[in-house]
Amino acid sequence: MNSIELLLSLSTALGAVLAGYSYYRGSQFKAKLARYSEIVDKEAYIAEIDDQADKRQRALQEQEAAVKREIEQKQQRLREQETAAAKAVDASTQEAKRIGQEIQTLKQDLAKLQELSFLEDYGFYERRFTYEDSGKYAQALNACRERQKQMLKDNRAALCETTWSIGNSEAEGQKMTRNILKLILRAFNGECDAAISRIKYNNIETMINRIEGSYKAINQMGQTLNFQIAPTYKQEKIQELQLAYEYQVVKQEEAEEQKRIREQMREEERAQREAEKARLEAEKEELRYQKALEEARRQLETATAAKQSKLLAQIDELSRQLEEAQKLKDRAQSLAQITRSGHVYIISNIGSFGENVYKIGMTRRLDPMDRVVELGDASVPFPFDVHAMIYTTNAPTLEKLLHTKFHRRRMNVINERKEFFKVSIEEIEAALNEAMQSNPDLKFKMQLTKVAEAEQYRQTQAQNRELVAA
After folding, report:
1. Residues 248 and 275 in one domain
2. In contact, 270 and 157? CB cutoff 8 Å
3. CB 151, CB 225: distance < 8 Å
4. How far is CA 384 from CA 104, 309, 350, 359, 431, in A?
5. Looking at 307, 337, 367, which one is the last position of a domain?
6. DSSP strand pairing (385-392 vs 342-348)
7. Residue-wise pLDDT tens digits, 64-119
8. Tens of pLDDT, residues 284-325
9. Can you give the pTM of this predicted structure?
10. Can you tell me whether residue 343 is helix, strand or coil?
């Protein structure tokens, strides 16, 4: 047997030994495993329980963390909501304060508008300018409009302080700016022209407010793009409106003055015609009485004693009538030569105008009562009562003194041709005495009747009372 075979034999034997030993050890292990399997199972169970506990604990920890995160998130949202609520409350407070201020401003504006409305109902307007006549007003109005034209030419009527560009082109932006400025000026000028064309005595403040409102509205709309009408241009428009109104008023006053002058001229012409007519009639009367007197004197020379006494009485009567005719002729000639002489009359009409309302006027007619009768025609229900008929060498001056004295007491402050005044007869008497003392050249005598007879009015009142009593 060689060495190789020996080795093979030994290897086979060793493998058999090892296999037997392995079988033996495996049997023992299985026996031991069978003995300790219950313990191994419990440990595995415990390990499994521990593993599950660990997992549950980790899950609980994760859940706790998630809950904490959710709580923190909710707290954060609550804090944010609280901050937002505080800001909203603060904003609401500021808004309420602003609205309160606006309400107060609106109340003040409303009070002003109510006052203006009340004043406008009475046609109240305080003039802003003091030009002498309509010509000066026309010049001022034209100058105002020329200033506006110059502002338009100089691009000062409306402004834009922002330089705009369109498609990176400043030229296009400038073109857009010019077009928008032209548009807002056209809108503003249209509103102003409409206000000026509609202005009347009872709406001037309303028209000024309309221009102001248009100015504010247009500037608010242009605020986003920084377009606005210049305040100086607005003031020029308001001044134009005021000048246009006062120009109309002055023209109307001048027309009324011209009408008064024409009426005065017609009155003077009528007085001249009446004076000339009276002079001619007085001359005829004088000539007739002169001839009659000469005839009576001629008859006296040849009359018997019985007829002489009768003729003497006739001569005396004719001499008296001739003297009166000569005085009437002299007076007519004087009136024809002195056109400022005439009568200032103080008359009332209680039935038509009430107590303490007097008309103070003048007339140059030879018989001034003709004028009083003319005033008491069908236009009033009752005739006028005469309180004074004052002859003076300067009737226009005396009348003007009385009118100036009682200017603020006029019943009609717009039309000064309406010569009615709300005064007492005692005030008129005092004014006449004052005029007499301060103007001795007027040379007038005054006899005043303080109580108005008002016969027809009082009879009518009495009959009405009887009818009511019945």
Report:
1. no
2. no
3. no
4. 55, 48, 8, 9, 22
5. 337
6. antiparallel
7. 788 788 888 888 888 888 888 888 888 888 888 888 888 887 777 665 555 545 44
8. 777 777 777 777 777 777 766 667 677 677 777 777 777 777
9. 0.44
10. strand
